[in-house]
Amino acid sequence: MSAVPQTRFVEALSATVGAANVLTEAADMAPYLVDWRRQFSGPAECVVRPANTGEVAAVVAQCARAGVAIVPQGGNTGLCGASVPVGAQREIVLSLARMNRIRAIDPLNDTLTAEAGCVLADIQHAAREADRFFPLSLGAEGSCRIGGNLSTNAGGVNVLRFGNAREQVLGLEVVLPDGQVWDGLRGLRKDNTGYDLKQLFIGAEGTLGIITAAVLKLYPQPLSGATAWFGLDTPQQAIELLALLRARLGDRLTAFELLSRVCIDTALAKIPGTTDPLPAPHPWYVLVELGDSDSAAMLHQRAEQAFAESLARGVASDVVLAQSGAQSRALWSIRERMPEAQLENVKHDISVPLSKIPEFIARGAEALERAFPGILIFAFGHAGDGNLHYNVGFADPAANSALMRRRAEVNTVVYAIVDALGGSISAEHGLGQLKRDEIRRHKSALELELMRRLKQALDPQGLMNPGKVLGSSGSDPCG
Ligand code: FAD
Ligand code: ZN
Known about the structure:
Blueprint: H1 6-17, E1 22-23, H2 26-33, E2 47-48, H3 53-66, E3 69-73, E4 91-95, E5 102-106, E6 111-115, H4 120-129, E7 132-133, H5 146-151, H6 159-162, E8 169-175, E9 181-184, H7 198-201, E10 210-217, E11 219-220, E12 224-232, H8 235-249, E13 253-260, H9 261-270, E14 284-292, H10 296-312, E15 318-321, H11 325-336, H12 338-341, E16 349-351, H13 357-371, E17 376-381, E18 387-393, H14 397-405, H15 407-420, H16 445-458
Parallel strand pairs: 2-4, 3-4
Antiparallel strand pairs: 1-2, 5-6, 6-10, 7-11, 8-9, 8-10, 12-14, 12-15, 13-14, 13-17, 16-18, 17-18
The structure holds flavin-adenine dinucleotide (FAD) and zinc ion.
């Protein structure tokens, strides 16, 4: 490989995708170079916006020849600094935003083929237009893109019933780090013909190749839905409530989100128009969503029976069932706006086995209070998946700034409990730059070595999203 000067390189890229789609001015590039939380940013030689798979392949081949690294980018809503350059070597940002076509819908095969740059909400909408349902749903769905969702193996609020992004994929089209195109766009639910290659690229955060299109699974549209808000005394009740609702309502239960009273107090104070859903305060809350192929009347009847049983058995203290779409949206708004209601704080995205959630919450509260007296814990999230967004901070701004500087110590306290309970330090947001180094303390040497070998096999030049997941290059993941 010979070093190609920047101007000649940019000219060559312009010849491939058109000069208008190669951004080099600082002001034009700025939004692509900083992440959503504005914690990570880095320089790029340019931002390239190809229009189709052929152009992506040509750009990747040009980068491989020039030895320039590529940061794939979708909606740039990722929370681990994975979608922006690191700045340790020559890099471009490759935005998939122009590749936003739905290529095909096959309602009888229950599949939709989308280009990587399709906004998630547009895919949900296209499925609905075909009288089908695409279940992946998360707070950023109006701007995140399916290529990013698959590359982070995104979770969201429907994982309990439908699984995370990985489970929505039947086939992929991928541009490999040398510019070859792998056409794996199969719409098969059964295909045992050796290694399931698509799985390698899902959750790889752009470090193994560029996803350009995917065949996604569709489901029947639910005919009815119901939203309920429970008040609880303890997290243990929440886990027992989950078991009861699953036993009585089966797959009708699609979301089960936990929130602590601290979260509700903050929402009431910070989000205008928020009202307390229950008359009396409770230490814990669970937001439940149900979907059914039966009528709303039948669903409500079933739900009310199960809810009455939960109160009678003492696994919930109070419950309200939304009586209108507006009430349901108001309940969901409390959950969805939780990230913006909080102060800047030290954030965690952890999972533990479901049965260990109460122990995690109890041990976390005790250990954090001991280390940082007076600390506020915002524990909320996808408890039905064993996944909590576990954020901690102080109400006092000075104390909070001091805590932010000690975030490594906070992480050590929280992650020690996660490890002790057999959990994960990144349940749904990935590693990116944020947890790239931390993960080395939580995965075995053999797991890291296997990851390194995969990286080396697929990206021997180390040009795909360097400095993310494993480190700066395929051969030195600890770099
Ligand atoms: P980006 O941020 O652009 O990229 C993310 C990673 O994928 C990067 O490593 C990037 O290089 C890589 N990438 C992007 N496109 C491609 C491609 N085509 N090929 C290869 N690599 C690619 N996440 C959840 O899991 N659950 C939630 O509930 C959730 N809620 C959120 C709520 C809010 C308000 C916000 C801001 C974020 C939330 N997220 C959540 C995080 C984020 O939305 C997800 O990680 C999302 O999947 C990222 O998609 P994106 O298109 O923005 O990807
Ligand atoms: Zn989440």
